[in-house]
Design brief:
Blueprint lengths: L1 E4 L2 H9 L6 H11 L7 H7 L17 H19 L13 H7 L7 H17 L4 E3 L11 H13 L5 H4 L22 H13 L3 E3 L5 E4 L2 H8 L5 H4 L2 H38 L4 H10 L17
Helix pairs in contact: 3-6, 6-7, 9-13
């Protein structure tokens, strides 16, 4: 049993747009988006004309103690909401503001590296995270799974630093996995997305918003099939073992059903919050560049009329 982020809307869109760019074509496309790579010094100047150290974007990699404390408490709150219950105090260690202040490292900003890394994470936010990017001809720019997309962006980010032999190893993918998910609240990233969207627009690319959603995948049937694949039926059957297996499966089924209900309810709440709150930075940036909201915004729950 595992959870993954996926969306029926995104899957439907990908089924309609059957044609996809090859990985080589995706590489060529990214080269056209950023001809001088993500470590181009002019990108720092465009995003932080008064200097990276004076830019609000510096907080992405050098947050304040207040920001880190707020992030920690928000993460705990989200976990409680997913569990639908508050754990006993003894199960949840206390986090104090003073302790965070003492433990936080103090590093000097590295403008070129941090700007390139931030651009890479924002590219993941737009080209992965279940969103859809299409060419002017309607061909899908599909970088693959979350991890594959992170590996692709890592290759593009580091190709002028690492040798060709290491380029295919993709050991740096973790830098861009899940994009800005952990840091997007530290600064307004709209200017970064806007820069990317302007370059996408110049190449005739369009973007479809897909609201994030966690889906539960129960892998037990696959595991059971693999375990019993080469075992004869007469050997597999054991009345006592079958009885206890059915008891365990029933308990696990109830657990899975409850978790799915919690995930569905959390998704509905998230959609409603998105409708009430201002659009996210990705949507705001798209609207500024394209002059309209992207397809898929505002988000809707399943069964609602997409109009």
């Amino acid at each position: 049993m595992e959870m993954k982020a996926e969306s029926p809307v995104s899957l439907k869109t990908k089924a309609i747009v059957e044609e996809r760019l090859t990985e080589e074509q995706c590489q060529e496309l990214f080269q056209r988006l950023f001809p001088n790579g993500l470590d181009d010094p002019s990108l720092v100047q465009k995003l932080a004309p008064e200097g990276w150290e004076r830019s609000p974007l510096v907080l992405v990699y050098h947050p304040t103690v207040e920001q880190v404390y707020e992030e920690t408490m928000r993460f705990r709150h989200n976990l409680r909401r997913l569990r639908r219950k508050t754990p006993p105090p003894e199960e949840e260690p206390q986090i104090t503001f003073d302790a965070l202040r003492r433990e936080m490292p103090v590093d000097a900003p590295n403008p070129a590296k941090e700007c390139a890394d931030l651009l890479g994470c924002c590219l993941w936010d737009l080209f992965a995270d279940n969103h859809d990017v299409c060419t002017a001809e309607g061909v899908l720019v599909d970088l693959g799974s979350f991890r594959a997309a992170a590996g692709f962006i890592a290759d593009f980010r580091h190709r002028r630093i690492h040798s060709e032999a290491r380029l295919t190893e993709r050991r740096e993918y973790i830098e861009f996995y899940l994009g800005t998910w952990m840091v997007r609240h530290r600064a307004d990233l709209t200017p970064v997305y806007e820069l990317i969207f302007r370059r996408m627009q110049q190449l005739g690319l369009d973007w479809r918003y897909v609201h994030p959603r966690l889906m539960l995948v129960d892998l037990r049937p696959l595991h059971e099939a693999l375990e019993s694949e080469n075992v004869p039926e007469a050997v597999r059957y054991n009345p006592t073992e079958n009885y206890w297996r059915e008891r365990r499966d029933a308990a696990r089924d109830a657990e899975v059903a409850e978790l799915r209900r919690n995930l569905d309810e959390a998704y509905k709440e998230s959609v409603e919050e998105a409708r009430q709150d201002p659009p996210p930075a990705t949507v705001r940036a798209y609207q500024r560049v394209y002059g309209r909201f992207p397809s898929g915004w505002p988000p809707e729950c399943e069964g609602e009329n997409n109009g």
